[in-house]
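Complex record, four chains
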Amino acid sequence: MLNAKYQSCIEACSNCAIVCETCAASCLREDDVKMMARCIELDRDCADLCALAAVLMTRDSQLSREMCRICAQACRACAEECAKHQMDHCQACAKACRQCAEECEKMAA
Amino acid sequence: MLNAKYQSCIEACSNCAIVCETCAASCLREDDVKMMARCIELDRDCADLCALAAVLMTRDSQLSREMCRICAQACRACAEECAKHQMDHCQACAKACRQCAEECEKMAA
Amino acid sequence: MLNAKYQSCIEACSNCAIVCETCAASCLREDDVKMMARCIELDRDCADLCALAAVLMTRDSQLSREMCRICAQACRACAEECAKHQMDHCQACAKACRQCAEECEKMAA
Amino acid sequence: MLNAKYQSCIEACSNCAIVCETCAASCLREDDVKMMARCIELDRDCADLCALAAVLMTRDSQLSREMCRICAQACRACAEECAKHQMDHCQACAKACRQCAEECEKMAA
């Protein structure tokens, strides 16, 4: 399959996109939304960058590596912010982002 | 051009997607984010549905009409919520959503 | 979690989006691209609709059901076309589309 | 408005995304699809990267510049391929891609 070599990174990105969307939607329903505003911003960017990184790798695009490099930056920033909050959705998001960052950094290397 | 017949609806959807993204991002930076939480939720859905509706029409997809029908629902819900808030980004969003809803309802008819 | 009830449908849609992208990209690299043109069109629409359906369910959007109804239509059309072609990527895509259609039809019911 | 400074680049990216989608869909309906296969691949990547670049700028994301840097690469590659083909949709796409590349290169600088 044309994208078999990217399989673990595609899966990490697809998973991270969904976990970030879940975190953003959950943050929006917290009582103290203000405290979560930066988290929501970073979740949204990370979700969209992960989704597109997964798609580009799936297509075996020549821009996959470049995209993974940005995606890793988004994941690191999102993980750092999410790690500050104790809610389950933030802790799960920090974990998925770190795992995705590692996969993307390997791809970009 | 294969999609010339959809031109005004494609433009309304593309424009509405950007205006909804602007509104969501602006709401997240308001002092009272809590008051804007529902607006942000509706902005996000509306932005994503408008963007995909524009893409499907651009491709002359056979699901364009169905997509415009849902998109109009998202636009109506977002316009109603945005109209409650006095900020410029919300008022601009309500207007773009109403215009897009009208175009999408014509397409879906 | 706010979207736990949609878990199996979110997973089916996420998986189907990636499998459709793989199929489209693989079709484009076949010797007889002409024969695959309709398959590529349907793959692309199905991939994008599945991806957005997954996102809307993840957000617990009130338009999730409507979106799943369209998504099921896209999956059925794509499965029917892919089933005509013997390549592994088409057969895998037909299977993922049928599974996703079933999940989406349950959601939309 | 939070993204007024990016206005011309957001517009160039939004426009280029739609023109690339139109080109891909039109290429798929040409008699000699095989000859257009590489064009379709590049159109798709360029469309998706432009769409996300527009969204990130709209949100005033801190990754906007990085994204515009990749987006410019996609636009240059797509313009080069499209310029080889005489069809109106390819010539229009080459032009939109060059204009978008210039805007994105200014942003990334």
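Note: Residues 4-108 of chain C form a domain with the Substrate Binding Domain Of Dnak; Chain:A; Domain 2 fold (CATH 1.20.1270.360).
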